[in-house]
Design a protein that fits this description.
With 300 residues, this protein is an alpha+beta fold. It has nine helices and twelve strands.
Amino acid sequence: MKIPELFKEYIWLVNTIYQAGKISFAKINEKWLRTEMSGGVELARTTFIRHKDAIEDIFGVIIECDKKDGFKYYIANKSVLREDTIQNWMLSSMTVHTAVQEGVSLQKRILLEEIPSGYKYLQPMLEAMKNNHCISFTYQKYNDAEIKTYPAADPYCLKLYKQRWYLLTKIKQQFRTFSLDRIRSLEISEETFLLDKDFDAEAYFHDYFGVFRDEKTPPLRVVIRASKEERPYLRDLPLHHSQEEISITADYSDFSYFLSPSDDFIGEVLRKKDRLYVISPKELREKILQNINEMEKNYD
């Protein structure tokens, strides 16, 4: 499927302004004329204004003009382009898709990670969420031969985590999370539900890591020591939005977090156990050490 030309222009404009920080209309036009999209024709100011308004409507990205700084344009709400937002995901996906379409020679030089088959349920799931329709589905856990049926569930939100789509539902007044690629069949019901007026998807996962919220493991302060080789990676791609670098030495940095140290979080630390070391709390240190000892038994 080809992305319409207008969308290509929207994507180019957002990326150009975002990368520049602040940029004048004259500079935008300069860069525009160097693209194939321009066809050698300047970007009219009226077209630019229409694009700016459309970008806000479609992506929620607000482009404003700083008249005090030489009438330069900038992204007024940069927070919507952080890594875990739908706007960032959409723009990133469209940017790569456009680049591949523009040059056939690039198709074998851009390698993407595969997302499991759960994506086929995305469209009906979005439809159900949009209209607040209940869903019924069958589900099979990993390493379980039994396929369970859930005849009535309220689809609350979707979350992408480690190349997998997850669905947060409410079943019999209890929140439950399911992986879309383990759903075996899905139907949208005629029955509707009322979304809790106070529900906020971002707030629901705010103090948790990954996609599973463990009520038995309350959020707490965690301090991790990262080797000098690992810390630049954490600076560029934090483990969690609460990350703060609280201590820096020649050989390591200490990072603090406020989150629930779930199994997903422990797994992330263990994945880099030669470069990450838990300082506190003591209970988490002991749990990770227990995991390491269990792993070592497999190699005896």
